[in-house]
Design brief:
The chain has 194 residues and is an alpha/beta fold. It is built from five helices and nine strands. Helix content is 26%, strand content 31%.
Amino acid sequence: MAKSGVARSGSCRIIGGVWRGRKISFDDAKGLRPTTDRIRETVFNWLQFELANSVCLDCFAGSGAMGFEAASRGAASVVMLDNNRATVANLKANIGLLVANTVQLEMVDTLRWLQQTKAKQQAFDIVFIDPPYQSDLLEKTCEQLEKGEWLRAQTKIYLEHAVNDKINTPPSWTCLKSKQAGQVAYKLFSKESL
């Protein structure tokens, strides 16, 4: 919400797959930073052999850029989680606009969802974790994903955070790729079986 009390919004473009070039809109919620085209291009190059028929989780969906990009590029299903009402309304509108039948949207706190939902019902092949910066949500989400058995062996986990943040991940996660763009650090991990 802008200081004047009027919600501002923006848009970004899906850069690959069946919806390539389509614009999605988003609200200007506090902490919402759509992943840039450049970073998304790199990340989805990293994931190009993992996406077909994958089951994905977008933990802090925000603009939906990561989840819609995954669905556009062949993911079998994408679960998007966000707890901001305006953000969820925009995501719902974008799902309708794209006729994104493989995208499931939940208006919920990510940590509560990971604690209350039974992981045995669903495990994920790819997980995107990009919470608001200056919060402890990233590490808590990583812990809950591991504790709740949400990940298969070889699940790929994408993390995005401020470059100066020190992040501890579960010991069974191996960092495969790591890059920086300005003040943003972004990494791809793989869940290994112990």
